TrEMBL record:
It comes from Parabacteroides chinchillae. Gene3D superfamilies: Spore Coat Polysaccharide Biosynthesis Protein SpsA, Chain A. PANTHER family: RFBJ PROTEIN, UNDECAPRENYL-PHOSPHATE 4-DEOXY-4-FORMAMIDO-L-ARABINOSE TRANSFERASE-RELATED. One of its GO terms (molecular function) is transferase activity. It comes from the Bacteria. Keywords: Transferase. Residues 10-177 form the Glycosyltransferase 2-like domain. The lineage of its organism: Bacteria, Pseudomonadati, Bacteroidota, Bacteroidia, Bacteroidales. The keyword Transferase applies. This is Glycosyl transferase family 2.
Amino acid sequence: MENSRNKTLSIIIPSYNEERTIVQILNKIISVQLIEQTQKEIIIVDDGSKDSTKELVNNYISSHPNESIYLIQHTVNQGKGMAIRTGITKVSGDYVIIQDADLEYEPEDYNLLLPELIYNQKKVVYGSRFLIKENKHSYQSFYYGGLLVTTVTNILFNQHLTDEPTCYKAFNSEFLKSIPLKCTGFEFCPEVTAKVAKYGIKIKEIPIHYYPRSINEGKKIRWTDGIEAIWILIKYRFTD
């Protein structure tokens, strides 16, 4: 039995030049009613944005005083992985999920992942874009690159994943904080997956929705990040 205290989901949002979508994603997040009266803690890490992201977030915080929203600022751009690591240090919730600052993922889907953490006591659960066939993908190179990274993950770590590079990775907070992360860029995904797998954990996946954006709309990941992801997986398979 869970104790009577309401649990809290900490939502880490690494942000870099996201003025076009940051307010919209925050509106989506605060409108979600989480299962079991789970509370929300929103941690935005502005990674040295050169646009108006941080001003928009500060204004949003001022206009929503009843919401638990916090802004942390990197004075210079350090990379998505570093932003996530900074966010992890500020987490006070029972569970953590990573949320991109764009609109590719649907915050309503938090309620699809939370049961695995709350009821089944999973330490980690991933949301898979590939388990809903209706989901579209922006570029064939990203689609096949994601499949390749996932296949390499499964071979190296004896997993049965369909979508290793997914953004929606959710964790028990204490467990995530115990993982010694070293990433600074997009390699957060393969590093945390490798290190979770080395604990002997079979990662559970849940189908989630996906609405991809284009490079012109601000998508930052590139095909070279897929090559780096494979290298990181190989590296952490044989080292700590």
